[in-house]
Design goal:
By secondary structure, this protein is an alpha+beta fold. The chain has four helices and three strands, in the order H-H-H-H-E-E-E. The protein has a three-stranded antiparallel beta sheet with strand order 1-2-3, with helices on one face. The longest helix is centred in the middle third of the chain and has 14 residues. It is elongated. It starts with 15 loop residues before the first helix and ends in an 11-residue tail after the last strand.
Length: 131
């Protein structure tokens, strides 16, 4: 039996929350649990030795020109998102308000995505720097 197709909106299969809303006009909004605003340095550091060595190598490569790391960070972000970045543009090297790139991140089905604005901040800090 397909209650909705048969015009039975409040049949036995009706969810209790919907029934309460229809009958009483009352509802309890869903609330997402709070999450941390920022990840700790330990949350961002590689856990394996080869990962730490890779980060150290990238840092050493860009240490003499930290601004050049911004283009690398843009490419890393594009790879990490698996194609969800539909537009990204690097900002100028200085006086950019701290943002090193701005773009659009797509969520949802390919035929009807929602595009979210994002900004990227890339810092070429030594792996031992926990600023």
């Amino acid at each position: 039996m397909n209650e909705l197709a048969d015009g039975i909106a409040l049949g036995p299969a009706c969810p209790d929350a919907f029934r309460r809303f229809v009958q009483e006009g009352a509802y309890d909004p869903l609330e997402a649990p709070r999450t941390r605003q920022f990840r700790r340095p330990s949350d961002q550091a590689p856990s394996k030795e080869w990962g730490r060595a890779l980060v150290q190598s990238v840092y050493e490569y860009f240490a003499s020109d930290p601004y050049a790391f911004e283009a690398c960070a843009i490419e890393l972000w594009k790879m990490a998102t698996g194609g969800a970045v539909t537009f990204i543009e690097g900002t100028r090297r200085s006086a950019d308000g701290g943002r090193d790139a701005v773009g659009l991140y797509s969520l949802g089905p390919p035929g009807d995505p929602i595009h979210l604005d994002f900004s990227l901040e890339a810092k070429c800090y030594a792996p031992t720097n926990h600023a």
